[in-house]
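Lecture notes, structural biology module. Today: joint structure prediction for complexes of two components.
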Amino acid sequence: MINVPKDGGKVVIPAGKPAATGLPAQSDPKLTHWDRVESKLVGEVDKTDPKAKPVVKAKSVGLALLFWAFAAASVGGALFVVTRRNLIAAVMGMVGSFLGIAAVYMMLYAHFLSVIQMLVYAGAIMVLFVFVIMILNRPEDEPVAPSGRAGQAIGGLAILYLVGRLVMMLIHVQPARPETAVAAPAPVVLPVATTNPLIDRLPPCKPGEALRDFESTVDTCKPVEVADWGSTKAVGYDLFGEGLFPFEAISLLLLIAVVGAIAIARPLNEDDQTETTHKGKTA
Amino acid sequence: MIEDILLNVGYPHFLVLAAVLFLIGTAGVLIRRNALIILMSVELMLNAANMTLITFARMWGDLSGHTFALIVIAVAAAEAAVGLAIVVAVFRGRRNVDVDRLTALRH
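The predicted structure, tokenised, for the full assembly:
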């Protein structure tokens, strides 16, 4: 859904689209994403026409229903994790919660992170937990084990405090403005690496300033490209631009974590391992 | 008012959802004694923080929040791997993973 009209091969970035930084970029704050979809489907939605209203309203009701369904899935899964005795049931609740969270990410136009959430959490981390539960081979129904008296007191106080803060936040919260969250964000303007060093040296074009084909570009600025907000391309530009150092640090961290996990989890020596398995069999 | 809250889904909804998830995760860490459940609750809390980051990124139109959330996911994966390895090591020595009974470092 790259918002670039094509006219005769020349792709012009529409003027008035703000860049990625700054306040929420909306071309028209009155129009929601669904309004734009509607206007594409049935022509312009007339705001003054009372008959046009219910159509848009119905769309937002569907969106609200989806939000509440996925919010219920994530909260219900989280409650499942905290309350279940059966560890496998708890893991499955966690997976449901993570899938609901991934859907909510999708509603926030974080497509890439939504898919990553599903792959990493609902895939890899779930498998890791199930694997460890199977290795431990505990009896399935373990009684819920509340902490000692001091732990219960601290836990109760902390939960009360957090609930109080949540209620305060709910009291002070402004009425929701649906158009801000629902409207599609403006595309992100990305710099383009060209083969021409003369063009490369120029400052990046502002939206609407440059054409995208290089032949017709006047040498005043470097041509830019647009990508959907939250898409892999846009996140990748940010990750390998500003976030390059954290990215490299993460690679080191993951290496250390892998080596550390193997070093911690493996038995100290062969005798130890055979003894453990023997004990496990007799027990 | 209630209809407004139910139908007009905006940023506060996402923030409150994240807060509720964080709350449940905190409760899990504080109430349960099974180390595996505690690790899962920590994962839930990290997810809630991620949701807040993404909501604010959406609110301000700044993609740095997405980069941050991605890095948080990687750190969470590393944390889960090391935490579960510790659980396995503890279980091997003691035959249980009850955090209230891990008192070997108490003087």
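Point to remember: The first helix of chain A runs from residue 33 to 42.
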